[in-house]
Amino acid sequence: MEWWQSVVLGLVEGITEYLPVSSTGHLILAQRALGMPRTEAVDAYAICIQAGAILAVIGLYRQRVARMVRGLAGRDPDGRRLAGALVVAFLPAAVAGFLFDEPIERVLFGLWPVVAAWAVGGAFILWLSARNRRACAAGETGIDLDRVDLRIALIVGFAQCVALLPGTSRSLATIAGGLLAGLSLGAAVEFSFLLGLVTLSAATGYKALGHGADMVRELGAASVAIGFAVATVSAALAVKWLVGYLNRRDLSVFGWYRLGLAYDAA
Known about the structure:
The model has no long low-confidence stretch (mean pLDDT 91). By secondary structure, the chain is mostly helical. The protein has twelve helices and no strands.
């Protein structure tokens, strides 16, 4: 892999991982545009450079992460409650992924399933945004992150299972699950980011253990390092932008973007 290809894929991964637009779908398009054939090593690379996006969120939300660590040590009850909620939210997708990962990759990892998921997800975002605007107009502010309970965690966890379908977007599924469970938009977004730390870490570790050696041998250690570094910086910038944007606007722009992308790709 050329160094500039590593940069492109790192940018695509970092920018799209936490936006509700599907990083997997964008990486599939980027790999096609770069003329890269689908191999186990290339697929593993697309997953493993998620570690950069994970590091970015740890850095941006280090105080929240530190509270969870203190909670697990018995020194912060709210941090322990949030950590427990994240574990509960992670489990449904972990089980579903273990059972269905291979058939999903074999059958649905292609352009047309991704295009369909973009279109359906785009229409869903527009509906969800309209629903959220009506709730805000009615004075319903939603539940704060510190009040996330096991019911909300399970709803978000089962919603995350939908993101196993390529093109759906893990961020979209978990943010939507949070909103439908009653969280405020800000709390749903932050819970989605923090849940990503657990989910993406598990997926990255699984791929690295299974195909990491092949990835480094075929693509080169330098390519992995470049992709990781670029993904870290671009993910940090994308997350900060998204949080600032959603303080002023809603998710509608991502719905229109997905519909436009699906139309163009079709």
